[in-house]
Amino acid sequence: MIMPSKRDLILSEYGISKFRYRELYYFCLQYEEMVKEKENCYDLREKIMDGMPKAASKSDQTGNKAVRAVVLGERLKMIEDCAMESSGELYPWVLDAVITGRNYDEICPPCHEKKFRNMRRKFYQILNSRL
Questions:
Q1: What are the counts of helices (DSSP H) followed by strands (DSSP E) for the chain?
Q2: What is the rounded average pLDDT for all residues in the chain?
Q3: In Å, what is the CA distance from 38 to each residue of 6, 74, 78, 130?
Q4: Residues 96, 102, 104, 109: what is their CA dihedral angle, to the nearest 10 degrees?
Q5: Tell me: the pLDDT tens digits for 104-131?
């Protein structure tokens, strides 16, 4: 697999290695997938009573879905909270940047590029400490 031509952020001053940054980066890129999966956890399908024998299952599918929804909700909230903590009122732009992988020019936040980059770096520092 070939990596796209996106440059990694240098976060060594925050104690975050190149590979840890990539782990955090890809964790955030899963945001939309986590939202969809969480929505699917609330999809309760009816059992089909067709008279055919089925294997006995000791697992509680509804309970497992509920637990998964809680875990996903916590992860989504953590990403959102880190964005709020790192950038205050500019968090929607930082959140958009980290969950889509888009850069400053594509998002056009109402601040200078240097300030935006610093907020994004701070986001990854906070997320690293929480994971």
A1: 6, 0
A2: 85
A3: 29, 11, 15, 21
A4: -20
A5: 888 888 999 999 999 999 999 999 999 8
What is the model's pLDDT at position 49?
A: 60
Virtual torsion, Cα 101, 104, 108, 114, nearest 10 deg: 140
The rounded distance, in Å, linking the Cα atoms of 29 and 27 is: 6
What tokens were used for 104?
A: 């400053």
Cα–Cα distance, 109 to 93 (Å, whole number): 6
How crowded is residue 35: how many other Cβ atoms within 10 Å of its Cβ? 14
Instruction: Report the alpha-carbon distance of residue 16 to residue 121 in Å, rounded.
Output: 10
- How is residue 63 written in tokens? 């309970």
Amino acid at 79: I
Q: How many whole angstroms separate alpha carbon 98 and alpha carbon 120?
A: 8
The token duo for 29 is 């890129």
Q: What 3 state SS string does 65-88 have?
A: HHHHHHHHHHHHHHHHHHHHHHHH
> CA–CA separation, 1 vs 65, rounded Å?
32
Here the tokens at position 119 are 């907020």
